[in-house]
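Feature request, filed as a ticket because there's no other form

It would be nice if the structure record came with a short human-readable summary line next to the tokens. Right now we just get the raw output. Example of a typical job, pasted below so the devs can see what we mean:
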Amino acid sequence: MAELSSSITDEQTRQFRDQGYLVLDQHVPPEHIEVLRDVCGDLIAETDRDIDAGRRERVLEITHKGKRYFMDGAYDKRPELGAYIFSEIMADVCRATIGPNAYLFKNQYVVKCADVGMKFSWHQDSGYVPEPHTPYLTTWCALDDVSEDNGTIYILPRSTGDA
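Raw output as currently delivered:
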């Protein structure tokens, strides 16, 4: 078995294996959050310009200006995201969850604007991958403070489905 990082506890690793998720509260350093926020703002502005110019072919159809954005391939457009994506923090998360070998499969910003009534349905990310695939890791990094009041995500633990 691969050596686990000291930044992820044995208890967190067990929770991932038992329940299918783990929470790392305030685990991303402020300098990475700043880059993630800056790129997010730039991508939203670019998407809005595409929508305003009628270039909908460049915008995912589930994107709704000012309400909800899905922006694929952010790392291709903004390589500075590599400082976070390929950071030791993310390597630690991968080693603790899926093992020593990890590859970037998909990178996407999903933005749900506050107080505009666009809800996300319960879903499983791998349900959107049309071909057979091995298990992969989805990470979610909040760029703003979140709570139940302003629309945080909910996670359905694996054990809930076993009953």
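Something like this underneath would help us a lot:
The two ends are 30 Å apart (CA to CA).
Confidence is low (pLDDT under 50) at residues 1-5.
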